[in-house]
Amino acid sequence: MFPSGSPRSLSLVFLLGMASQGISCPSRCSCQYLEVNCTGQQLQEFPVDIPLDTRQLILAANNVSYLPPVELSFLADLVYLDCRKNFLGDDLDFTFIGVARLVYLDLSFNNLSQVTFSTFSHLLSLVVLKISDNPNLVAIEKDAFANNTWLRHLDVSRTGLTFLDTSTVRDLPNLRLLGLSDNLWHCNCSFLDFITWMMESDVHFPDADNITCHTPAGLRALRMPAAEAQLHFSCLTQLHKQDYVFLGLVGFCIFLAGTMAAWLAGVCVVIYEAHASKGEEEEEEEEEEEEEDTRGPRLRALLLRGRARHRPRPGSLLIPAPSRRRSAPR
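Predicted structure:
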């Protein structure tokens, strides 16, 4: 019996590695235990006969222009893929759907022109992504790395990028290193939010001295801290022609709304006054009618009383009152 950690276990591991190597190995490639290295072999296509248990695949410095998703999906245990210095282009969407365990991916020095959500969305364990030195790379979608929450190292240096949305990198909770140097950054007011995030972030930016503005001409070769100060002044303290137009439209809308509100208020007041005066007139008419209704019986009663006073009593004689004559003066 051999104790744990004995030469027997080491020899078993060695034999397994030799067996894996002996099963298959692409021509012009070297195969060691769980590693296939095809660097600089002028390969035109993705190599075949790669051992299925390969963990590390190096295809650097070849002429490969296409990565077949089906062949890659056979390498379910692959964690390291180096494809730098090839001719890989735009057809990378859904390419890595079968290598979900991939931790390291190097696609630098290729012909990438854009990165979409579908490019790396299946690489949930990705930690290092290098897509630098792709001069045709001009666009990275806002949610391109939305599923790569474990990403710690991202390099997009020396590409054709002029703009990068802040949320693209800000929403990566584990990001620690971000390469942005020697790009064609267009430092306008839309880019100010990204520059401000750079100044306030804890992320490390290697070669920070070469992270400069390319356009406009007034900010060319200006480093990001100085560009931030310039943009703060020009974007947040000064008004441009479109700003005045916007403020004019807002003022006109406020004036129009105030005029309409005043007109509606006036109409409501007139309607209310008319209704109130009509109600008062109706009340006055009702009061007059009530007074007339009560005044008629009272007048009749008064007339009857007056007649009763001047009517002679029965059995009495009416003796005319003697007339008084004035005596003529003598």
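Summary: The domain at 18-183 is CATH 3.80.10.10 (Leucine-rich repeat, LRR (right-handed beta-alpha superhelix)).
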